[in-house]
Amino acid sequence: xxxxxxxxxxxxxxxxxxxxxxxxxxxxxLGVVFVxxxxxxxxxxxxxxxxxxxxxxxxxxxxxxxxLGAVEVLLGGALVAGRFLRPAxxxxxVHLGGTFLTLVxxxxxxxxxxxxxxxxxxxxxxxxxxxxxxxxxxxxxADLRRGGVR
Length: 150
Prior knowledge:
This protein is mostly helical. It has one domain. The chain has eight helices and two strands. The protein has a two-stranded antiparallel ribbon with strand order 1-2. A hairpin with a 2-residue loop joins strand 1 (2-4) and strand 2. Helix 3 packs antiparallel against helix 4 (85-99) and helix 4 packs antiparallel against helix 8 (129-146). The termini are far apart.
């Protein structure tokens, strides 16, 4: 094992293990988050129902939130199962891209005093989706490289 600036660096075998498990772990964790958040929406217990309804004012808020939750559960399930990864990853990215509408449609709930550099709790909740979007992109690229079953 090498030492890089005092930090142990895994050997070649360790890197192979990390390379083998990192994308499946990322895919699975992203899927779990989607299933969990989606299930909260379907169950009517999500804390973001008003935020979603205020960002997309159609259809009726209950229908919108529950429908979005059902889609999130399906997408998360596909990610966890490792099936239909290409369409699931693309739809996850589209969905996450849509969450940024909150910053445009409801800037008062996302930014403090209208300052786009100072986020509220809601703004932080939305902006963290950049990481989830990138995770879905990594999953998509890994599946494309692997040439997985569609």
